[in-house]
Amino acid sequence: SVSVQDLLAVADESAQMLEYSSQLEIKSRALTDTAAKLRSANDKLTQLSHQKDSFLSQISHELRTPLPSIKGALGLVLSGATGQLPDKMKGLVTIAASSCDRLILLINSILDMEKIETGTLDFRMKAMNLSDTLNTALVPNQPMATPNVWCRCWITCCQTLLSFQTTAERS
Questions:
Q1: Is the model's pLDDT at 4 over the cut of 70?
Q2: What is the mean pLDDT of residues 52-73?
Q3: 60-79 per-residue burial string, b: 16 or more CB within 10 A, e: under 16
Q4: Rounded Cα–Cα distance for residues 2 and 123 (Å)
Q5: Rounded to two decimals, what is the model's pTM?
Q6: Angle between helices 130-138 and 149-158 (to 10 degrees)
Q7: In whole angstroms, what is the distance from residue 41 CA to residue 31 CA?
């Protein structure tokens, strides 16, 4: 025979099981909501990634297209194909040609984002003279810096620095 005490124990266990079931249902709903939020966030990230890829593709086309013509024209002018240049003008055109080369490298670096993201960008490190590197950046700005004593002093001080490691070549 079943005693009242046995019935109360079964009722108590049933109540506990209903409570656990209710808690599991609440947690299940919370997990479902979290999964939906994660799917939504993932969809947004995927959309942003596609927009970024589209933007980089647009930059590649819009910025790269005129650069070969500019570089070629500056090369022709520097070679004397358009006539002899005065020394002062030749210096400025040389700076412009060098800046064009640097712009091409900069655009290529921006476009290497995909390789960086996938971990496939190969860096070839080599020692470089810091003075030469700084001169590459400072010489195009020299006409604006000439009256500035601090800039001349900075260039002189940089020429005494040692070399450093950098990514000198792209792969």
A1: yes
A2: 85
A3: eeeeeeeeeeebebbeebee
A4: 80
A5: 0.51
A6: 150
A7: 15
**What is the three-class DSSP state of 12?**
helix
Inter-residue contact 67 to 107 (CB < 8 Å)? yes
Give me the helices (H) in 65-86, please: 66-79
In this structure, what are the phi and psi dihedrals at residue 34, rounded to the nearest 5 degrees? -65, -40
123: helix, strand or coil:
coil
Rounded Cα–Cα distance for residues 67 and 26 (Å): 61
Backbone angles phi, psi at 51, to 5 degrees: -65, -40
- What six digits make up the tokens of 40? 């939504």
Distance, in Å, from the CA atom of 131 to the CA atom of 111, rounded to the nearest integer, reads 28
Structure tokens at 133: 């590197």
Place of tokens 């390789």: 115
The residue among 115, 135, 126 whose CA lies nearest residue 166 is 126
**Sign, CA torsion 61/64/70/72:** negative
